[in-house]
Write a structure and sequence with these properties.
The protein is α/β, with parallel strands linked by helices and 401 residues long. The chain has 2 domains: 149 residues, Alpha-Beta Complex (Aspartate Aminotransferase, domain 1); 222 residues, Type I PLP-dependent aspartate aminotransferase-like (Major domain) (Aspartate Aminotransferase, domain 2), CATH 3.40.640.10. Helix content is 44%, strand content 14%. The protein contains 15 helices and 13 strands. Strands 2-8-7-6-5-3-4 form a 7-stranded mixed β-sheet, with helices on both faces. It has a 4-stranded antiparallel β-sheet with strand order 9-10-13-12. Helix 5 runs parallel beside helix 12 and helix 6 packs across helix 11. The longest helix has 22 residues. The radius of gyration is 21 Å and the shape is globular. The chain binds pyridoxal-5'-phosphate. The site of pyridoxal-5'-phosphate has 13 residues, from helix 6.
Length: 401
């Protein structure tokens, strides 16, 4: 965004303050190269490459034909609120009533609404980093101050209650946890979640628990510790979730917030004066996704585990690259520091040359507050992953010689 131009044109301070990710230019360059006919192996993607399962699509089509084409309540279809609550009951053994669920236009809007409803000017929100950039921007848009807490590669990027505890002050309004993490794939251990739940009660802050990638976890099922955390934290635990990744529904834009009724009602009030509701047929599709057959989710998680196993082993074997094995999601976070030099001083520079010379797109770590790293999405077919890792290895080998 041209900030000065924006000021002259009358843009608000809020709009002018939005950080546009330095990686956007690279995504645009990758798109341009594709249009020019170059084969680009695009590992910058943040969405499954599989199509939405056909029974979910059929439910949307049936809803349209049945005339379900009008507004829904601002908090979402009652059937969908109930379906979301039931899914968490079954998958996480955690219980929220339908009145404690609001539907949103994707996890992004859910997070935006939660921040708008909870955060006042000057409030601090603790965010473990490396982090998904939207977390910090959502906090800033609400007038709050993101407080970043470093998770270290030496500790497998684990977010610990101890590290978070050191960042809590009397101004802390919330802590954002993203497990499994985008971009590191690290999971918050159940013991740390429980310790944070106790801390939230004691120090009066809310845990915003983003479980976007939870159903694509590679550990044993049912170990998130969400139930125990809810028992301890009560109203101070808010879950932000989405149908996007679990059901290959990124374009349908269905997400949710689970939390105390007063927060859910505030989110619905914000929605009622802005977007009213997510598309009604998409909500009906989400009802089918959540209440219908779940073997599609298990198959997806299995496929991502297969890809993770391959790509992690292959990347870790590239000289000068280290990489923690992700416990969930579909990202690998590569440490490329050994390849930085005067000629290529940043991972932005590496990313841009890798794209031009090898046709491979990664997301440089600068966008996640982690210079020296790059994110590789393995939400791409195996043959592309094989070819892509070979190209990355050849490019990095060339830098060293
Ligand atoms: N949370 C995290 C950590 C994400 O990576 C994403 C998407 O990439 C989202 C939330 C939101 O996804 P959506 O708005 O598609 O539901």
């Amino acid at each position: 965004m041209s900030r000065n131009g924006g000021a002259a044109g009358g843009l608000s301070r809020r709009a002018r303050a939005i950080e546009v990710s330095p990686t956007v230019a690279m995504a645009q360059r990758a798109a341009t190269l594709k249009v020019q006919g170059r084969r680009i192996l695009d590992f910058s993607v943040g969405e499954p490459d599989q199509a939405t399962p056909s029974h979910i699509v059929a439910a949307a089509v049936a809803a349209l034909h049945a005339g379900k084409t009008r507004y829904t309540p601002a908090a979402g279809l009652p059937e969908l609120r109930a379906a979301i609550a039931k899914r968490y009951e079954e998958d996480d053994d955690v219980s929220f009533t339908p009145a404690e669920v609001a539907v949103a236009i994707g996890g992004k809007q859910a997070l935006y609404l939660a921040c708008q409803a909870l955060v006042d000017r000057g409030d601090e929100v603790v965010i473990p980093t490396p982090h998904w950039p939207t977390f910090a921007e959502c906090v800033r848009l609400a007038g709050g101050k993101p407080v970043l807490v470093q998770a270290r590669e030496a500790n497998a990027f684990k977010v610990t209650a101890r590290a978070i505890g050191r960042a809590i002050t009397s101004r802390t309004k919330a802590v954002i946890l993203n497990t499994p993490s985008n971009p590191t794939g690290a999971v918050v251990d159940a013991a740390d979640l429980l310790a944070l739940a106790e801390m939230a009660q004691r120090r009066h802050f809310t845990i915003l628990y983003d479980d976007t990638y939870a159903r694509l976890g590679f550990g044993a099922a049912g170990e998130t510790g969400l139930r125990a955390a809810r028992e301890v934290a009560g109203d101070r635990l808010v879950v932000i979730g989405t149908a996007s990744k679990t059901y290959c529904m990124t374009g349908w834009r269905i997400g949710w917030i689970l939390g105390p009724k007063w927060l859910v009602d505030a989110c619905a009030a914000l929605v009622s004066h802005s977007t009213q509701c997510p598309a009604t047929f998409a909500q009906w599709a989400a009802v089918e996704a959540l209440t219908g057959r779940q073997d599609v989710v298990r198959a997806l998680a299995e496929e991502y585990r297969r890809r993770r196993d391959f790509v992690h082993t292959a990347v870790a074997a590239v000289p000068g690259v280290t990489c923690v094995r992700p416990e969930g999601g579909f990202y690998l976070f590569l440490n490329l520091k050994a390849h930085l030099s005067r000629r290529v001083p940043t991972t932005l520079a590496i990313g841009s040359r890798l794209l031009e010379e090898q046709g491979v797109a990664l997301v440089p770590g600068e966008g996640f507050g982690a210079p020296g790293y790059a994110r590789l999405s393995f939400a791409r077919p195996m043959d592309e992953l094989r070819d892509g890792v070979a190209r990355i290895a050849s490019f990095l080998g060339g830098l060293r010689s």
